[in-house]
Amino acid sequence: MTVDPSLAELSDRLFSIAVALYSVAVVAFSAQLAFGRRPARELVPAGSGGADAGAPAAPLRSDRWGLAGLAVTVLGAAAHAGVLITRGMAADRLPWGNMYEFATAVVLVGVVAYLVLATRVPAVRDIGAFVLAPVVISLVAIGLFLYTETGPLVAALRSSWLAVHVSSAILGSGLFFVSGIASVLYLLRSRQEAGADGSFLSRLPGAATLDRVAHRTAVFAFPIYTFAMIAGAIWAESAWGRFWGWDPKETWMFISWVVYAGYLHARTTVGWRGRPAAWVNVVGFAVVLFNLLYVNMVSTGLHSYGGLD
Amino acid sequence: MSTVAPPRPAAAPPPPARPSLGARAWGLWLRWWRRLTAMRTAIVLLFLLALAAIPGSLLPQRSLNQNAVRQYFADHPTLAPVLDRLYAFDVFGSPWFAAVYLLLFVSLIGCVVPRLAEHVRALRAAPPPAPRRLQRLPDSGELATALPGPAVLDVVEEELRVRRFRVVRRDGAASTPPGPAASGPELSAEKGFWKESGNLLFHLSLVALLLGLAGGKLWGYEGSILVTEGQGFCNSFQQYDTHSSGALVDSGDLSPLCIDLEDFRAEYEEDLTAASYTADIRYGGPGEEGEPATIGVNDPLRLDGDRVYVTGHGYAPRFTVTLPDGTAFTDVSAPFLPSDQTTMSSEGALKLPDLGAGVEDQLALEGFFAPTGLMQGGVLTSIDPRPLNPQVAVLAYQGYLGLDSGLPQSVYSLDASQIERGRLAEVGRANLAVGETLTLPDGTAVTFTGVSQFAALQFSHDPGQVWVLAAAIAVLVGLLALLFLRRERFFARVGPAPDGGGTVLTVGSLTRGGGESATRFAELTGQLRAALDERSPTPSAPPSGGAAPEPEVSPRDR
Ligand code: HEM
């Protein structure tokens, strides 16, 4: 198995292009926030949350910025997907064999999830800047700190479970990120709706919408994450001789799973609904992030495929 | 999606307040039990469980890495014993971790079993009567039609049954006190029991999963051993280098199985990434010829309840030792443990405690092995994991090894205290390529004759494994049903139109789960409208005052 250097180089170039396009999108979304008036489009009609009221209005000028941002994001996502596709072709394998590839894929899932949400729930478009800015920052960090040359997989990863387990873990984590961002924005927005000042915050979708987006995304991600955990256990059984061994990575996946179970409970429990539940979701988000970064880079365990020394 | 709290089973009425001690204790118990099985307790316990697992990943754990724990004790001599008393190095087997998850599961059972009973009852009971004011339901609307009331409900019932609702009709006037909102015959329909079934399946499968884990821990065992090509082992705790077993394992009951390692191969990519490890083995009962099999990474030998894995590999350099009197020990070897997986440079020791009658001194070699050796500044290093140019750097010792001193010692190194005390003395050192010989002062010749590979094999027995897998799949199935199915209740009531002509049909629905209930409700009412129009002798009159014939659908979506 040899690596095709020209494809590997193309992959690296696409990475820069994706970052550049996303940065442009951040500018466009920020312009939308800066020049826009209150967003008039709402997912949740009257009755579900104070400031959500408002009749649908004709597209505002700010919408053009939003649409431009969306279009550039789509282009960026195409380049971003290209990074992984060309890398996979260069090494003739699935492009998630090390942390650079894994993290890049998780961020892509986040972007795609945002795009899907933004087309289905127009109000979500307005959070573009808050999704794309972290995306740009994480991609730059990934490029700087996690970059690994294209190469073949180590023996332990040569299994069809790589496709099953890692793909679902990537999908789940990426969706949880979007959910986490929505919950952070919900926390800001609900405080602002409650009277605290925050000029640009009023241009975000209503708190009820943000809460619903966060919950729906987490509901979608949770079974995928559960599946990833089960698939990981099945794989561990054939690779390491036990299906569960409290390896640091396993432990942190367990912790995040338990936190998300807590979030789903909190969403349906009187006294926990709303802000407390959102905080639980934010904690889950932090745990997934911690698992992705710290556990791969700092601790030593069986999951030491980071490709970092 | 619903944000309504799940209906908790109605709490048992408190016992009549009597001063009897027993009754008070019972009341106290009930109160605690209710608190333990409340949802908010579940959330707190889930949080505690997550918190409790954290030290298990930040501190070294005995179950994962004994050496790391020893190192931690060496680095933190005052802190480590204190932490150890708190089970910080055995978090997942500690009483406090167990306390958290056992409480959680008691809470879960206490929460789910009443729900299960309730669910079974609801499965057999008829859908509940319609609420008095249908307009107050999250989704509701009114339709006017020229059909008479009973015929209208016939149509609604048919449409709902086609959609697999369970439908019951009641004579509204008889069952509810007549009033402005509740009058006329009514209909209740319900579907989506699978959502609650999924919820129960999910939570109960978690319990099953825990039981499977516990069973596997109690009746399971695991042993690890290094086996050099051409050698073998049988499944017994005496033979393993390390083993662990559950409390209920009887060492006499291990499956009678022996494994011989015939050949081991490690293959590498051009950039020296390990591509595959394969071991050709033979397995069978003691004394049997055995069946051949090939195992490798991700590909263990699976036998009824037992599994054999390749968990690592390494090199065992071979030496021929010729004593001054001509006695030769041919091709003796010992596994050298890889200290660097990328180059497979390895360290180890070969101990020869018994060199035959009349030889007082014991002999040992300790050193460094490089599969592809290169001398750099007088130091032997390895530059390739493949055995392209095997070399060893060895120190030879003679004297007393201390093997029978009663204290256990590592097979991979010499007992440093014997060297310190002068009982074991260095008598020579050399870097040897294959075929080269180190001659010791007393005339003993040590020849490096070549290298064999060894495989680290692990034998595992976990009777709970299949059970855990089945429970995990049930957990997932239950979760999907619980999260993505919805439960719908649909109510309808007919009454005479205020202007006397025809009938007004009032409908309302209550949905849990699934989201976007308003659109689905609008769709259903639209279809009801169409069905009613089809049956009407004349196109149905709009409801009072000539409003649009569209159902007036409340736009609220909870
Ligand atoms: C092992 C620990 C537990 C886990 C992992 C867990 C997980 C979950 C999840 C993921 C949901 C889905 C929430 C949703 O509808 O969005 C759920 C629902 C639920 N859980 Fe648990 N749970 C656990 C323990 C408990 C306990 C101890 C109780 C009772 C005190 C409980 C009662 C419920 C109830 C009543 C629901 C249904 C909520 C509804 O229908 O809206 N669970 N659980």
TrEMBL record, chain A:
<feature type="transmembrane region" description="Helical">
    <location>
        <begin position="168"/>
        <end position="188"/>
    </location>
</feature>
<protein>
    <submittedName>
        <fullName>Cytochrome c-type biogenesis protein CcsB</fullName>
    </submittedName>
</protein>
<feature type="transmembrane region" description="Helical">
    <location>
        <begin position="129"/>
        <end position="148"/>
    </location>
</feature>
<dbReference type="GO" id="GO:0020037">
    <property type="term" value="F:heme binding"/>
</dbReference>
<keyword id="KW-0472">Membrane</keyword>
<dbReference type="InterPro" id="IPR017562">
    <property type="entry name" value="Cyt_c_biogenesis_CcsA"/>
</dbReference>
<keyword id="KW-0812">Transmembrane</keyword>
<feature type="transmembrane region" description="Helical">
    <location>
        <begin position="14"/>
        <end position="35"/>
    </location>
</feature>
<feature type="transmembrane region" description="Helical">
    <location>
        <begin position="251"/>
        <end position="266"/>
    </location>
</feature>
<keyword id="KW-1133">Transmembrane helix</keyword>
<feature type="transmembrane region" description="Helical">
    <location>
        <begin position="65"/>
        <end position="85"/>
    </location>
</feature>
<feature type="transmembrane region" description="Helical">
    <location>
        <begin position="218"/>
        <end position="236"/>
    </location>
</feature>
<dbReference type="GO" id="GO:0005886">
    <property type="term" value="C:plasma membrane"/>
</dbReference>
<dbReference type="InterPro" id="IPR045062">
    <property type="entry name" value="Cyt_c_biogenesis_CcsA/CcmC"/>
</dbReference>
<dbReference type="InterPro" id="IPR002541">
    <property type="entry name" value="Cyt_c_assembly"/>
</dbReference>
<feature type="domain" description="Cytochrome c assembly protein">
    <location>
        <begin position="96"/>
        <end position="303"/>
    </location>
</feature>
<dbReference type="Pfam" id="PF01578">
    <property type="entry name" value="Cytochrom_C_asm"/>
</dbReference>
<feature type="transmembrane region" description="Helical">
    <location>
        <begin position="97"/>
        <end position="117"/>
    </location>
</feature>
<feature type="transmembrane region" description="Helical">
    <location>
        <begin position="278"/>
        <end position="297"/>
    </location>
</feature>
<dbReference type="GO" id="GO:0017004">
    <property type="term" value="P:cytochrome complex assembly"/>
</dbReference>
<keyword id="KW-0201">Cytochrome c-type biogenesis</keyword>
TrEMBL record, chain B:
<keyword id="KW-0201">Cytochrome c-type biogenesis</keyword>
<keyword id="KW-0812">Transmembrane</keyword>
<feature type="transmembrane region" description="Helical">
    <location>
        <begin position="96"/>
        <end position="117"/>
    </location>
</feature>
<keyword id="KW-1133">Transmembrane helix</keyword>
<dbReference type="GO" id="GO:0016020">
    <property type="term" value="C:membrane"/>
</dbReference>
<feature type="transmembrane region" description="Helical">
    <location>
        <begin position="466"/>
        <end position="485"/>
    </location>
</feature>
<dbReference type="Pfam" id="PF05140">
    <property type="entry name" value="ResB"/>
</dbReference>
<protein>
    <submittedName>
        <fullName>Cytochrome c biogenesis protein</fullName>
    </submittedName>
</protein>
<feature type="region of interest" description="Disordered">
    <location>
        <begin position="528"/>
        <end position="558"/>
    </location>
</feature>
<dbReference type="GO" id="GO:0017004">
    <property type="term" value="P:cytochrome complex assembly"/>
</dbReference>
<dbReference type="InterPro" id="IPR007816">
    <property type="entry name" value="ResB-like_domain"/>
</dbReference>
<keyword id="KW-0472">Membrane</keyword>
<feature type="transmembrane region" description="Helical">
    <location>
        <begin position="41"/>
        <end position="59"/>
    </location>
</feature>
<feature type="transmembrane region" description="Helical">
    <location>
        <begin position="200"/>
        <end position="221"/>
    </location>
</feature>
<feature type="domain" description="ResB-like">
    <location>
        <begin position="39"/>
        <end position="513"/>
    </location>
</feature>
<dbReference type="InterPro" id="IPR023494">
    <property type="entry name" value="Cyt_c_bgen_Ccs1/CcsB/ResB"/>
</dbReference>
